[in-house]
Design brief:
The complex is a heterotrimer of chains A (about 200), B (about 90) and C (about 625). Chain A is mainly alpha-helical. Chain A contains 7 helices and no strands. Chain C contains 27 helices and 2 strands. Classes of the chains: A mainly alpha (about 200), B mainly alpha (about 90), C mainly alpha (about 625). At the A-C interface, helix 5 of A face helix 27 of C.
Chain lengths: ~200, ~90, ~625
């Protein structure tokens, strides 16, 4: 089992790195999904199968699919790739790497100091999780549901506005252009006619 | 993983990538919680991971809606273009 | 006697009420309050005086303490009034003359917009003057002193829309401020060395602890004299009084003739015990008085503005009072103060009538022949002028001035030189007075009369004229009365002069002055012009007209350097410190602004850095 853990962990990290360096959005997205699947395997190995399932279904399934939808809606195209390329100069990696490296060192230090732990002993049953969920953590559940509701409404509202404004703007523009001719194009003293809209 | 996500967040300018890095960071944090829960043989870690999951879902939906708005307004997904709060 | 506090309280409350609500009252209500308050104060004063004279209290002094003003360990001055012969005489004069002047100004100022404001200021002035005179400790006296200074400033600059009036008011305030500071220093000195501000107590302790001629006594006396010199416009601080004529005529009459300028005289008389311990200081008082009366007399001779002549005349007459104080003729000084108050107020009120009748004409060289046109003004002015000049036997001024001149010779601290000065002064006084009268009332009419005064103006004139004549006959009783508090003059051997002889020579001076004025200003006016055209005469005329160059001197000595310093400091180096702080803040702001790029990644990096540092602190400490 331990081998599985290490392999899955390595895959997760490699996939993440590849995702970071990716130029094409969709490619990066796929790398991310791979990373998430690897993490799901890790979950299973350390004895949280329910969480592994959730990770696949919700994270890799729903959230990433949402990403895919949006990317497809945006319809970025080839110039996005070149743009990314121009943005990702080598020099740009240094600062954040140092910063994140420091953070990593600190966390590692804390973990190592805390004494060693052994791996994945026994599984924590989904049943147990459920009991705790509806016991002490029931308020958290309610709050999470409210959060989801807020997210839903917000996303709908923000996403919806676009179309309305675009539509109304379009309508107004067309009406204006159709209703009144553009006087600024009439040149006095010449026989060039006004450009009809 | 968290550090990698942080690097991604700081480096990339494209908003989609930023959101993806954010997801990576969230995932990493959730992973940490589950591992801790497994270490101490309690269900609490998994509970927290559940909440993180729910939160990430909500956040992604709103975030992506915002990304759409930004694209329609500014015609670009460059995070650096959104600097109206300068000064 | 218990009504003493009302004498001060009524004008004070009237002043406050008029200041706050005056603009809402009608003219008649304001008049009723403004004039009536002083009137009732005068009535109460007379009642108190009658009480005092008929049944004098113990020690010839009555003290009434109203409340304790300040309550610190070792220093507890209270608001208290001290009534003795000296203060009684002063409050009688102040309220009585003040009442007639207020009545006069009810008509004089009737067309003015600031009617209620005027009466508020005048009432406040009377209240402050009464406080000054009745104060039983130096601190309360100083309060009244400052109050009269304030009212003087307000009233000189009454017509504030004209900038020149404001300048004159400022000049008066600043010059008297110099004197006030000296007085305050004297007050501090007295308190720190003797431990009290109660005047009577102060005199008592001073005579116990200080030897005659001790440095402390002389210093304190000279400092107090400084204050008196400032307020009474004596040399070298006399420069403010002529310019103070920019104020309304009733103001000049009340403040700058009858009452405020005599505050200095009162102060010296009140602290006579201190001056008795400092013969040097007393000598300085006499010298100041003598010098002032000559200087001012000469200046009065050359002025052409009717009010300025009277202003210099006031300075000169107060010089006489100072001379009297300096030689130890205390009661003579007070007697001269009483007579002076009446005739000078009358002169000023008459001048006001003339000025208004001739439609704001001030120059005496454009007046003439008003004898028939304004008969009441003429006769009252004539009577007052004769009193000023010292017409023998029938005017009060003759008696008081003669007393002083005689005292200058015969007093233990007197000196023949002072006597000569007094006689010359009498000559000068007669000269300029009759120059004024002949120019204004005699000769051809140059400016026609446009307005004649009503009853509210003529009645005060007549009443005051009556007292000017009658005043001479109260000399003996008045002197005897005042001597209950002030020491009598010590007479030395008269060495070849008797009182009658001195009086005779003074009368001679008067007659010669009268003759020369008649000659130069009525009979042969060309002589006056010739005197001025003569090169020596022209120089003298210009010099005396400009107040013996004091204004020029002060301008060079004080005003120009001050302006020069102010000009240098125009970019206020102290202010630069504060603007420096502001600029520093601004620079910091700009520096910090650089961190506000508006970029999300930048802010995220900020969060990351912060969390790294924070973790480092938590982990490694």
């Amino acid at each position: 089992m331990e081998v599985a853990f290490y392999i899955a962990a390595a895959i997760a990290i490699i996939a993440t790195v590849l995702m970071l360096r990716g130029l094409n959005v969709v490619h990066a997205l796929l790398y991310l999904i791979v990373s998430l699947l690897a993490v799901a395997v890790v979950f299973y190995v350390i004895g949280a199968p329910f969480m592994a399932a959730l990770e696949v279904i919700i994270y890799a399934g729903a959230i990433m699919v949402l990403f895919v939808f949006v990317i497809m809606m945006l319809n970025l195209g080839a110039q996005a790739v070149s743009l990314e390329k121009s943005w990702l100069t080598p020099g740009i990696w240094i600062g954040p790497t140092v910063l994140a490296g420091l953070l990593l060192c600190e966390v590692a230090y804390v973990v190592v100091r805390g004494g060693d732990a052994h791996m994945g002993a026994r599984m924590v049953e989904p049943k147990q999780v459920g009991i705790v969920l509806f016991g002490p953590y029931v308020i958290g559940v309610e709050l999470a549901s409210m959060l989801l509701l807020a997210g839903l409404v917000g996303a709908y509202h923000i996403g919806c506005r676009t179309t309305h404004r675009a539509e109304s703007g379009n309508a107004r523009d067309t009406h204006q252009r159709w209703a009144a001719p553009r006087r600024d194009l009439v040149l006095p003293g010449t026989d060039r006619p006004a450009r009809t809209p | 993983m968290f550090s990698l996500g942080l690097i991604g967040l700081l480096v990339r300018r494209d908003l989609i990538f930023v959101l993806m890095s954010l997801e990576v960071m969230l995932n990493a944090a959730g992973l940490a919680f589950v591992v801790a829960g497994s270490r101490w043989q309690q269900a609490d870690g998994q509970i927290v991971f559940l909440f993180i999951l729910a939160m990430a879902a909500a956040e992604v939906s709103v975030g992506l809606a915002l990304v759409l708005q930004v694209y329609h307004r500014f015609k670009t997904l460059d995070a650096d273009a959104l600097s109206e709060m300068k000064g | 006697m218990g009504l003493l506090w009302l004498i001060v309280a009524i004008p004070l409350s009237s002043a406050i009420m008029l200041a706050v609500l005056g603009s809402r009252f009608s003219r008649s209500v304001v008049t009723a309050w403004g004039v009536g308050s002083i009137g009732s104060s005068a009535v109460i004063t007379m009642l108190v005086a009658a009480d005092f004279v008929s049944a004098p209290p113990a020690d010839n002094a009555y003290t009434e303490v109203l409340w304790t003003w300040i309550h610190i360990a070792g220093f507890q001055p209270h608001i208290g009034f001290y009534l003795d012969a000296l203060s009684l005489v002063m409050i009688l004069v102040v309220t009585f003359v003040g009442f007639w002047i207020h009545l006069y100004s009810a008509e004089f100022m009737r067309h003015d917009d600031g009617y209620s404001r005027f009466f508020a200021y005048m009432n406040l002035f009377v209240a402050s003057m009464l406080t000054l005179v009745l104060a039983d400790n130096l601190l309360l006296l100083y309060l009244g002193w400052e109050g009269v200074g304030l009212c003087s400033y307000l009233l000189i600059g009454f017509w504030y829309r004209d900038a020149a009036n404001g300048l004159a008011a400022r000049k008066a305030f600043i010059v008297t401020r110099v004197g006030d500071t000296a007085m305050l220093l004297g007050l501090f000195l007295l308190f720190t060395s003797l431990g009290t501000v109660q005047i009577q107590e102060l005199m008592h302790r001073a005579s116990e602890r200080w030897a005659v001629g001790s440095t402390l006594a002389v210093t304190a006396a000279l400092l107090l004299l400084g204050g008196a010199v400032g307020k009474s416009a004596q040399l070298p601080l006399q420069v403010w009084l002529p310019d103070a004529m920019a104020g309304p005529t009733p103001t000049s009459a009340l403040i700058h003739a009858a009452t405020m300028v005599t505050a200095g005289v009162y102060l010296v008389a009140r602290t006579h015990g201190l001056f008795a311990l400092a013969p040097t200081a007393q000598f300085v008082v006499a010298v100041t008085g003598a010098a002032t009366l000559i200087v001012a007399g000469c200046s009065a001779l050359t002025q052409y503005d009717i009010k300025r002549v009277l202003a210099y005349s006031t300075v000169s007459q107060i010089g006489y009072m100072f001379l009297a104080l300096g030689v130890g003729a205390w009661s003579a000084a007070i007697f001269h103060f009483v007579t002076h108050a009446f005739f000078k107020a009358l002169l000023f009120l008459g001048a006001g009538v003339i000025i208004e009748a001739l439609h704001e004409e001030h120059s005496i060289f454009r007046m003439g022949g008003l004898r028939k046109e304004l008969p009441v003004a003429f006769w009252t002015f004539l009577i007052a002028g004769c009193s000023l000049a010292g017409l023998p036997f029938i005017t009060a001024g003759f008696y008081s001035k003669d007393l002083i001149i005689w005292g200058a010779w015969s007093a233990a601290q007197g000196h023949p030189g002072f006597w000569v000065v007094g006689i010359v002064g009498a000559l000068l006084t007669a000269l300029y007075t009759f120059r004024l009268i002949f120019r204004v009332f005699f000769g051809p009419i140059q400016t026609p009369v446009s307005k004649r005064p009503g009853y509210a103006i003529t009645v005060p004139l007549v009443i005051l004229a009556f007292f000017v004549i009658v005043g001479g006959y109260v000399k003996e009783p008045l002197l005897a009365f005042v001597q209950s508090t002030l020491p009598t003059m010590l007479e030395e051997g008269a060495a070849g002069m008797t009182e009658t002889l001195s009086g005779g020579i003074a009368a001679l001076a008067f007659l010669s002055g009268l003759y020369f004025a008649y000659l130069f200003h009525l009979q042969k006016r060309s002589l006056a012009e010739a005197a001025v055209a003569n090169p020596a005469g022209r120089v003298l005329h210009a010099w005396w007209c400009a107040d013996w160059g004091f204004d020029w001197l002060y301008d060079r000595l004080f005003v120009q350097p001050f302006l020069w310093v102010a000009q240098i400091n125009k970019n206020d180096f102290i202010d630069a410190f504060y603007t420096g702080i502001a600029r520093l803040t601004e620079a910091l702001y700009r520096a910090l602004q650089l961190a506000q790029t508006g970029l999300v990644r930048w802010y995220a990096a900020g969060i990351a850095v912060g969390s790294v540092l924070f973790l480092a602190i938590v982990v490694f400490s």
